[in-house]
What does this fold into?
Amino acid sequence: MTPLLSVQDITKTYGARIGCTGVSFDLYPSEVMGIVGESGSGKTTLLNCLAGYLEPDTGQVIFDTRTDGPMDTVTMSEPERRMLGRTDWAFVHQHASDGLRMSVSAGGNIGERLMALGNRHYGSIRGDAMNWLGRVEIDTDRIDDRPTAFSGGMQQRLQIARNLVTGPRLVFMDEPTGGLDVSVQARLLDLLRGLVREMGLSAIIVTHDLAVVRLLADRLMVMKDGHVVEAGLTDQVLDDPQHAYTQLLVSSVLQV
Amino acid sequence: MNEYNFAYLDEQTKRMIRRAILKALAVPGYQVPFASREMPMPYGWGTGGVQVSAATLTPDDTLKVIDQGADDTTNAVSIRKFFENTAGVATTEETAKATVIQTRHRIPEAKLTEDQILVYQVPIPEPLRFLEPRETETRKMHSLEEYGLMHVKLYEDISQHGAISTAYAYPVKVSGRYVMDPSPIPKFDNPKLEMDAIQLFGAGREQRIYALPPHTKVVSLDFEDYPFEPTKADHACDLCGAEDSYLDEVIMDDAGNRMFVCSDTDYCRTRRARGSQGRLSKEDEI
It folds into this structure.
């Protein structure tokens, strides 16, 4: 089986400082990978390198494209990479305001990717937007409201709808539950889990919340100071941590 | 008046602007940066159009300047005087006699010919500006032909107003490639953008020049189920009776009386000279 995403030896430094170094892994279709670690451990740098927002210093990010098979997204041309960015890839930002157009209605936000791909039929765009609002549990009569009128949890769900409307195969998520209260987090996680299973999505989730990866991720990578210190099946890593840092991380979780 | 170089700008500057114009004509709809000069008028009064006109004029040209279609408004009068003083070119109010027409926010009703140049004053040349504030990003979107965002604006119009409510500066796609802001002309004028004359667009403050060569294909953006419609007030001109021209609405008194007149004053005058009459032409001879 060809991996959907094959990452080989990604290194990104900021001058003398290390962003992340020597990261390699394979992600297979329908697999969810979690990346955990403390702030400053290089999680977001790695994610941005994978999603094409940052150019890594060395390494390859090979994505199995629909038309041409495996291609290195680091060296592919920018139009191709941006095309991937609005078709096969999706990026869910921590802050919904980074991923949404706050001055455009919910329907317009969901429809943007469809219009970018050449859909020029208002009725069908609106139909898709309605459908997706329903799927992320937002009342369809809010379709003409702006995201500024939405709660934090609704904004985050809208961002997910906006990203998934084109049926991507790989979703990058940067702290998708950051800044939400626990009950809203639970609902969002439930929704995400449902969508990932239903659509057969592959996902890479960066978070510092171990509960999120426990629920969503099949596999886990633990990062510290730009290095991957431990990787494996989620339950295995969390229940039987081998590396000292992972042990610290697992034992730091507050038990209620 | 000999104290000024012909048409105010020095020759080197005019050469620079002409190079930008030639490039703009070679790549229709592409916004060519140019080193816009300070002109003796405030930004927003047509500094871009004036520089393009200055670079385009020759001593044999006849200049016409219109502002919202009219020859007799402040902007039109002062720019016309400016070129009378600095270039000494002949000026006219008749569309057919002019070789260079500088315009603000209208295309003349009379059909323009291959011998004419239409120069637009442009406030904001970037059609994507109010959707995407970053210049670096809009340039990238143009170069990669990522124009989905433009339709998001039209989508928002329909979802809020039930129809595409953008009535002026209606975005167009030029020659199947660049999306262009046709300057704030009413969308009534959009179909006229495919014409025989050369069209040059100058934005002084934003330092951009773009152009439409004659007979360039210009398509107004729309949706399949909400097609583009040029609109005008549903009346005939009250002075000349024209039913095919773009109309201004004039409030007559505080009792709700109003009249509609052609915004193109030359078109209206020509029709009246030929004897055409409108609803109010007898009582209200101008």
